[in-house]
Design a protein that fits this description.
Elements: E1 11-13, H1 21-50, H2 57-86, E2 90-91, H3 93-126, H4 131-134, H5 137-164, E3 172-173, H6 180-184, H7 192-225, H8 230-259, H9 267-280, H10 290-307
Parallel strand pairs: 1-3
Antiparallel strand pairs: 1-2
Helix pairs in contact: 1-2, 1-10, 2-3, 3-5, 3-7, 3-8, 7-8, 8-9
Amino acid sequence: MENYNQTSTDFILLGLFLPSRIGLLLFILIVLIFLMALFGNLSMILLIFLDTHLHTPMYFLLSQLSLIDLSYISTIVPKMASDFLHGNKSISFIGCGIQSFFFLALGGAEALLLASMAYDRYIAVCFPLHYLIRMSKRVCVLMITGSWIIGSINACAHTVYILHIPYCQSRAINHFFCDVPAMVTLACTDTWVYEGTVFLSTTIFLVFPFIGISCSYGRVLLAVYRMKSAEGRKKAYLTCSTHLTVVTFYYAPFVYTYLRPRSLRSPTEDKVLAVFYTILTPIIYSLRNKEVMGALTRVSQRLCSVKM
């Protein structure tokens, strides 16, 4: 580990990889993924806003997921890229708290929103005649605002704690962003009670929603299997598979990282797992839908006709 001046109150982010040829290739790959996620999620939000055919509960929730993913990856990657390019790995005490707050708030909101999207698909497939009643605009707004508010409250509680615990001489965080488990290892006090609260919030925000999603999709897949229409079955499988891929990439590494005791954690393993839920997940939904591609065609044609 490199030696850093520890007289400052700033933290040091050791980063995802060392400055080497392989590190440069990985850096370029991550920047490309970031740009793809940026373009894909911005396009998704704009298309859903501009095309009236996509003004449905499913796409309303999806636009919020794209907004969260866009904010999520923008909280992490630009700072990491700047550190790698300029070699300045320091981040201020307040800056670390702000990054940690947004990471936790957006992460909690996304976990709850993914559960809401699973409920939406469950109602759409299993109770199609009740869909517009059970997934009204009011219900969608309540789901979205609830996800943002609950995620923010949880993030605020954790951020206040990590900004008030005493830290030892070393302020080198063995991560590429201000992650709570990595910061807690630098504390000069016993944190076993706080680690219990991390376990509790992880269970509430990840384990319970994951169980709910699994039950919902168990019912959905059973209903899809019984469908007589091959086209309807294909469309339902495509929608469900995309959502389940996002859920797997997001929940599994998150749960594995945050539910493990400190004695079983490996900084290298934590950083690799974090890549899945901070960098890879935001690109999965981007433009992977026939209706979205159809909306892209319609909006493009509309723009061309306006220019002519």
